[in-house]
Amino acid sequence: MQTINEIRKEIIPLFEPIIGEIRIKTYFSYYAIFKNNFMIALYQNKATFLRISQYDIADISQHPSTYNLSDDKIGLQSRKFHFIPSSILSDTRKFSSLIRSTINELESEKQKTNKKRSTQIRNLPNMNLKLERMLKKVGINSIQDFIQIGYISTFIRLTLHGFEPTEDLLFKLNGALNHQYIYTFTYQQKLGLMQEANDALYASGLRKRFNTNHLIM
């Protein structure tokens, strides 16, 4: 069985002249090649399986010597990883183009994911998918919507929609917009929020919900 150093001597000359330093980790019975925390290839028994971008998939699929990674022994099937024959490995321009196209696609996908996460209410402090869905039911679909409406108006909307107006919900909404976890709330902060919510509920024609006398320091 080859050592990791022996494997590195086989893999590094293929990739590092093109994209610089790479990282190699075991992946089942394969060796995974990483660049910028993206897994771009798998290697086993001198066979290289490169992740192919959507841009190159049609072209690489037509090559007579390439095929999808399929390993029934470990149940690994992938349409994204293709065997790269020596004719392509030795063509520096072609192989370099394939690798860079893959990295560019992965970076683009990461940027899209990060952009989406930046608008998702679930990623705010105290919030989760369940609370995000609750807010969507009252027309609050993004962090920007939430900021514009504010925590008190959001609390009122949820109450009018039939959701239980609990202290915990009130604190979570406030903390989410102020980037503060509820376990750090002070006594005075909790008291002030409940009094504010009571006033807003009353102004909306709803009964006050919180007995602030029971809150003990």
UniProtKB/TrEMBL annotation:
Residues 119-195 form the TfoX C-terminal domain. Transmembrane segments: none annotated. Residues 15-104 form the TfoX N-terminal domain. This is DNA transformation protein.
